[in-house]
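Researcher: First entry.
Model:
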Amino acid sequence: MTFVLQLPFSSGRRTRRKAVAVRLFDLMVMALIALGAALTVVYVVQYELKVEPKRPAQGAALAKAKVMGRVRWAMVEPRLVARLKQPHALELGRVWATREGRVCGLVHGWGSFGGLTAMTRFYTVGDEPVFKQDGGGDFDYQWWQCKRDHYVIIREGSEETGFCATKLGQERCYTVIVGARTY
């Protein structure tokens, strides 16, 4: 059994004020939702502009950038060789310089125990190479900054990490095609 309690119909000044107050509250809630949506759009656009990859050097700036890149690489390469204790020449993937003069790239080297390390990412702080294995907490962020700023390419090569990006890996690894995807 259900009972419905009917409220008496009321009219007058108080009822109209209450209805106006409810409508004003509804309008304020809708305005806050619209403001929140607009701010979200603004922040997303600002973020996308901030993380957009930077354009490489072009025209007259390219010649200056190439000279800067060669000079930076001449300072960094010996330190990279010394750091990796290489008995053989370095096998490099892509190496580039950023607008700020930081050298970033991938290197396949021999570890201090004589084993191959596979293609490993590095960037420089000053002239010293920094690897993820060094334990710096901000390596991923700094590498991301490098990835978005290929100002001048110092050496062409693969940006893939791991064994399959090396010369030996390219001989031994194979490509698997499943449908439209390549692995």
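Researcher: Second entry.
Model:
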Amino acid sequence: MRAESPTQTVQRLFPLLAEGKSAEAAALFADSVSFSIPHPPGIPWVPRVDSADGMRTFFELLHTHVRAKEFDLRQIIAEGDDVVLIGRLVSEVKKTGRDIGTAFALHTTVQHGRITRYHLYEDTHAVAKAYFDE
């Protein structure tokens, strides 16, 4: 049996998240994870994360506070263990009912079949506006 490619591993993540399967999604991650999502202070769905358990907490918080509406994956760039996903997403902040519409880039790294890096770049102004603006 041939090992799964890093791209295949990362692509398994999104259907699991869409189905609300946080534990199964977190199982794709290594015991040690480099996690980064630059965000405004006070955003409740971005905790400190450094492990697969932390990723599960992140996915659960995300599901609690945000409802995914659109996910448009436009490009996947893979080289070695690194996989970068580029696209656009729209999510609704449940607390305010306002949408976050943003382009995104997600830099992941997969080593020994597990995701070891999850660095998401998005429009933090759009996040703050949807969550904080009255």
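Model: Note on the second entry: Strands lie at 29-36, 66-79, 82-93, 99-111, 114-122.
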